[in-house]
Design brief:
heterodimer; A: 2 domains; two-stranded antiparallel ribbon; 19 helices; globular; B: about 100 residues; mainly alpha; about 0% strand
């Protein structure tokens, strides 16, 4: 009997694939010397269409392809997250490659491929499917990282990312093989059934550690963070933005599926491990960021620190912790992408990512300076911005789960992080500029910067509706323990 | 009689050789070869579990893994070629531009 396939569940991914194919054909059909950036324009139009379509999919729940693919509220939430992140990344790409001689059309195709990978990660209901989805995402990221092939830094970053990324997928696969060996299945549902009726055996614990290593690599948690500063600095800035938001969020979907869903009945056994990792990760990220001179590298360390904050929610292990992760990521999307948008626009006019060149930015472009300041302050967690309320619920979830010491370490870290974020803010606002040339910002870019600002402030002030969305995403999740 | 544990032991040895190779080798090509060993070790344990558990999904997974391994090598070699053209070396310790 051939199983029936419910195509409506996977329609979003099919549409993404269709757009990808259309763009490939268009890339071949367009004359080589076209001035207009057709692929970029069509990508943006396609994304807005997809966001509209995504809104209609809210109530969609079910599994298809023999249980390999599922659609639930968590997948829905994260697909929207990835689509919104991609709007920023594609707009950044358009700007970034205006000042470069390299071809950019293939870059759009790789971005769409990465988007497909991320959406599939959010919807995987089987470890084989999850492995393939993660590989689709990661392999397109390898290529994009090394994309500026005449740039030493980009190549070096690509090589390092490839070696460590392949190492982590090796771990992941080896972990899956042992999980398959003990549970006799790779289906999430079957594994959950096994987990709820068995105690944790050494072999499954070993498998879990290996799988967590791969997830930790994606979310940039210590001790799997070695690639982060180098790759963030060397990769083209739009890729850095995608790594810091999209790829990290994809890691957290997997983390939530595993630790809040499938393996939830073994929760007691890893609370302390996750809490310890969270503490070490945030300390490492925030202490490392203090001495950085390159803004992308600084945000790389800060991204490690944020992985630490987010892991608090996972260590809390409650529904509140999971909702806090969702909410925090939502604020992090606007904050971090706003910051990277400023970095791209600044790079175009001054060809530099060094923090010392940001001196006096407020005199050269008040809008860029204001967005970067808000983003940094929101990352640090100052009220009333998105980062503050996100940290607040994460801390609340941690305290409610009895991990008071972890909450204390987090508060200390937030204070440390204020130092380096405000050092950059001081450069922008207080120091005298080296040149007084105005940095031009085009109208669409102003609109996008405005969206980022509205996002940061809006999520910080009107938390209610966003928190609702974050909580419903967790409540309707598949594989929640009964 | 060769049992499941023998296969797992072999796959564990191959996996360890791969890890040690990635850590100790300075030549990027050798690192790439060691990374392939990691995937080969997983394939071996998938097939062994599949055989001894009497479930054929494990053997199916191996095909997907081989595909992914091929893609990874293709990308890796492409980056190595670019690196050789640009830097004139394929030694990993020459990759030291990005440091604080």
């Amino acid at each position: 009997m051939f199983p029936t396939i419910d195509w409506s569940l996977i329609l979003l991914e099919l549409l993404i694939t269709m757009i990808l194919v259309v763009l490939v054909v268009l890339d071949l059909a367009l004359p080589k010397d076209t001035k207009k950036d057709w692929l970029g324009i069509l990508s943006l139009a396609g994304l807005f269409g997809l966001i509209g379509f995504w809104l209609t999919q809210r109530a969609l729940v079910g599994t298809t392809f023999s249980g390999m693919f599922m659609m639930d509220s968590l997948a829905w939430f994260f697909k929207g997250f990835f689509l919104m992140a991609m709007v920023f990344v594609i707009a950044m790409t358009q700007q970034f490659f205006k000042s470069m001689r390299s071809r950019k059309n293939e870059f759009y195709l790789l971005l769409w491929l990465a988007l497909l990978g991320m959406c599939l990660v959010a919807s995987s209901a089987d470890f084989l499917m999850l492995f393939i989805a993660i590989e689709i995402l990661t392999i397109s990221l390898y290529v994009m990282t090394a994309y500026l092939k005449s740039d030493k830094h980009s190549l070096e970053a690509g090589m390092k990312y490839l070696i460590l990324g392949a190492l982590s997928s090796g771990f992941f696969l080896y972990g899956i093989s042992f999980l398959y060996g003990t549970t006799r299945s790779t289906h999430f549902e079957a594994i959950q059934g096994f987990v709820s009726s068995h105690a944790m055996a050494p072999m499954t614990a070993f498998a879990l550690v290996l799988i967590f290593a791969a997830v930790g690599f994606k979310i940039a948690a210590v001790p799997f963070h070695w690639w982060v500063p180098d790759v963030y600095q060397g990769a083209p800035t739009p890729v850095t933005a995608l790594l810091s938001v999209g790829s990290k969020a994809a890691g957290f979907v997997v983390l939530m599926r595993l630790f809040f869903g499938i393996f939830a009945s073994w929760h007691g056994q890893w609370t302390l491990v996750l809490a310890a990792l969270s503490a070490v990760t945030m300390c490492y990220g925030n202490l490392g960021a203090m001495f950085q001179t390159n803004i992308k590298r600084l945000l790389g360390y800060s991204s490690i620190g944020h992985a630490g904050y987010l892991l608090m929610g996972a260590a809390a292990g409650s529904a509140l912790g999971a909702s806090a992760i969702n909410f925090y990521l939502l604020g992090y999307l606007f904050t971090n992408l706003g910051a990277f948008l400023v970095i791209v626009l600044f790079f175009i006019s001054s060809k530099s990512d060094e923090i010392k060149n940001y001196a006096g930015l407020v005199k050269r472009s008040p809008l860029l300076a204001c967005t970067l300041l808000l983003a940094l302050v929101s990352l640090a967690g100052v009220p009333p911005l998105a980062g503050f309320f996100g940290k607040f619920i994460l801390l609340m979830a941690t305290v409610k789960s009895g991990l008071l010491w972890l909450a204390f370490i987090a508060v200390v870290n937030i204070v440390i992080s204020l130092y380096y974020y405000l050092m950059v803010a001081k450069r922008i606002y207080v120091d005298a500029p080296h040149t007084t040339s105005i940095i031009p910002v085009s109208r669409p870019m102003r609109l996008l910067l405005g969206i980022a600002i509205v996002g940061m402030i809006g999520i910080g002030i009107f938390q209610g509706p966003f928190l609702d969305v974050a909580m419903t995403a967790v409540k309707g999740m598949y594989f929640l323990p009964k | 009689m060769i049992g499941l544990e023998h296969y797992l032991l072999l796959s564990g040895i191959i996996f360890s050789i791969g890890i040690v190779g990635v850590i100790t080798n300075r030549n990027v090509l050798k690192v790439l070869l060691s990374l392939e060993l990691l995937l080969a070790a997983s394939n071996l344990s998938f097939v062994a579990f599949s055989k001894f558990n009497g479930d054929y999904a494990g053997q199916l997974i191996v095909f997907f893994v081989i595909l992914v391994a091929a893609v990874e090598v293709a990308i890796g070699l492409a980056i190595i070629v670019l690196m050789y053209r640009r830097l004139g070396t394929i030694q990993a310790d020459e990759l030291k531009e990005l440091k604080w």
